[in-house]
Amino acid sequence: MISLSKYINVPVFIATLVIGIIVMYVIMPDNRKIFVYPSPENIDIIQYRDKTNGCFTMKQTEVPCPKNEKDIAKIPVQT
To answer: Where are the bilayer-spanning segments (predicted)?
Structure first.
């Protein structure tokens, strides 16, 4: 039977494993998602991506409101 302790120094292995995990934790990129909703200030400078990875931009147009409140539909924000 071959003994692994003959080839691997256990304290050095554990120390280098811990150092490697700490280094990877420090240099890993931050994967936070930032949600940006369209506003009049950023409507023409930001490109948006939907759930299907399709990129699009928005165009602001002013429309008259309907007189009947039942004709106004609320569309939820896609998250």
So the answer is: 7-28
